Amino acid sequence: IGCGNVAVFPGDIMVGDADSVIVIPAEIADEVATEATEMTAYEDFAIEQVRAGQSIIGLYPATHPENLDAFQEWRKKNNR
């Protein structure tokens, strides 16, 4: 079927809210879920760092390698 000029196949995942709907093809759903989990963890880390007074520059997006190192330590500490 089609929805908003996008092909939708059996098994595809559709997610929507009041603003929009997205279609995730079934064959990449696991990859998308893994990436979303990673992104959410990093965003939680970044929010915590900014609330602690760190500058957003180089933190989000993570362009400074030391932030990625700190994120890995944060993940271990927080079981994420």
Please explain how this structure is put together.
The chain has one domain (2-78). 46% of the residues lie in helices and 15% in strands. It has two helices and four strands, in the order E-E-E-E-H-H. It has helices at residues 29-51, 65-78; strands at 2-3, 6-7, 13-16, 21-24. A hairpin with a 2-residue loop joins strand 1 (2-3) and strand 2 (6-7). The chain is elongated. The chain starts with a strand and ends with a helix. The mean pLDDT is 94.
Percent of sequence in beta strands: 15-25%
CA gyration radius, whole angstroms: 17 Å
Q: Name the helicity range.
A: 40-55%
Number of domains: 1
E-strand count:
4
First-last Cα distance: 38 Å
Unreliable segments of 5+ consecutive residues: none
Class by SSE composition = alpha+beta
Number of helices: 2
Summarize the biggest pleated sheet.
2 strands, antiparallel
Mean pLDDT: 94
* H/E topology pattern: EEEEHH
Oligomer: single chain
